[in-house]
Amino acid sequence: MSNSVGLGNVWRFPFLAAQNGGGAFLIPYFILYFLIGAPLYYLELSLGQFSSRGPAKAFILAKGWQGVGIAMIINSVFTMLYYNVVISWALFYFVLSFRKRLLWADCGYWWNTCACFVPGNTGRPQGCNEIDLAALSNVSNATALKRTPATDEFY
């Protein structure tokens, strides 16, 4: 079940639907889901129920399919490794978003550099001395001014 529903369905599906024709994309999606996806999912569940075994041993019934169960386990391990990181990021930023002052909204923190700026704010960067500002805004080469938004410096 963990391999069939994941964060990719939540994040990518609206984007793919919009890129491929909006609502018209749903017609072939659901046709293929009911013709291919649902029967394969039901077949996998039935095989596990019938054999009363895990994925590594369930596919012993057919010699040519023995590697499929091992591949399913390996796929689950790799998926588990990166999903834990993605979910921990989501939870981390979710908890931080409840603060009264968002950490990524301005430049007054220890991790910010002198290149940090808040879009729409033309004031002096916080925590920078005059030497850093002079080096940052080299008047002989105005295109060398590399400013970084506060959100980018936080992430």
TrEMBL record:
GO BP of this protein: amino acid import across plasma membrane
Disulphide connectivity of cysteines: 107-116
Localization annotation: Membrane
A Gene Ontology term for the protein's cellular component: plasma membrane
Coiled coil regions in record: none
Chief location: membrane
Protein family per UniProt: Belongs to the sodium:neurotransmitter symporter (SNF) (TC 2.A.22) family.
Name of the molecule in the record: Transporter
